[in-house]
């Protein structure tokens, strides 16, 4: 794993909301810190209402984590495009984020409760 990436269990319980709907809540979330960037909360997939998420055509690449599949969120008021991502086959050293979802904070609400 790249020395600048740290993964640890996130303290407490975390929730993700979009359009007023709770998409997930977890006390088993992971906190990933990469260099000086703000930390990102990764939710276990089984704690997310995956019925609201659809794979998008967007795939991005991180040299340290691998390829990230992006997801659109379908809510009552419409679609939030590329609002979430998942490293479905993460690189060696960051395997803990496999089967987890992360969300763009500017598109949804992610907060500790």
Automatic annotation (TrEMBL):
Residues 15-106 form the DUF427 domain. InterPro entries: DUF427 (IPR007361), DUF427_sf (IPR038694). This is Uncharacterized conserved protein, DUF427 family. Gene3D superfamilies: Domain of unknown function (DUF427) (2.170.150.40).
């Amino acid at each position: 794993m790249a020395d600048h990436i740290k993964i640890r269990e996130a303290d407490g319980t975390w929730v993700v909301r979009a359009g007023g709907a709770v998409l997930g809540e977890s006390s088993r979330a992971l906190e990933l810190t990469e260099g000086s960037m703000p930390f990102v909360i990764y939710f276990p997939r089984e704690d997310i209402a995956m019925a609201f998420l659809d794979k998008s055509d967007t795939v991005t690449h991180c040299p340290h984590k691998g390829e990230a599949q992006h997801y659109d969120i379908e809510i009552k008021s419409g679609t939030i495009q590329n609002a979430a991502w998942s490293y479905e086959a993460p690189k060696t050293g960051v395997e803990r984020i496999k089967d987890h979802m992360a969300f763009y904070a500017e598109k949804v609400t992610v907060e500790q409760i």
